[in-house]
Amino acid sequence: MSRSFDEIQVFDSVAQRTGNQIERSGVRGRAGVCRSLTELGAKFRRLGDGYYYLAAAVWPRDVVSVNLSRAWQPLV
Questions:
Q1: Structural domain of residue 25, as residue ranges?
Q2: Most buried residue, 11, 36, 56, 68, by CB count within 10 Å?
């Protein structure tokens, strides 16, 4: 597991980094700890809006925000 985590704020299914970086000991035992963007999306769907902690190296380069919801696809 990563040694440092980025604090991520999710509001209205859009995730953005807050700029705070927290050491592993500071997030131990919290429900919002995520090792991947996939895990972040799953926890967001289960827990809703709020603050999450994502492993520091996982956030995509040069991306300000990530939309965690997908548009509905009609069945044809």
A1: 4-59
A2: 68
Q: What are phi and psi of 47, to 5 degrees?
A: -100, -20
Return the SS3 of 44: helix
When divided into structural domains, the chain yields a total of 1
Specify if 35 maps to a domain: yes
Local structure of residue 45 (DSSP, 8 states): H
| In contact, 39 and 58? CB cutoff 8 Å | no
User: How many other CB atoms are there within 10 angstroms of residue 22's CB atom?
Assistant: 15
Is the whole model's pTM more than 0.85, yes or no? Answer: no
How confident is the model at residue 2, as a pLDDT? 61
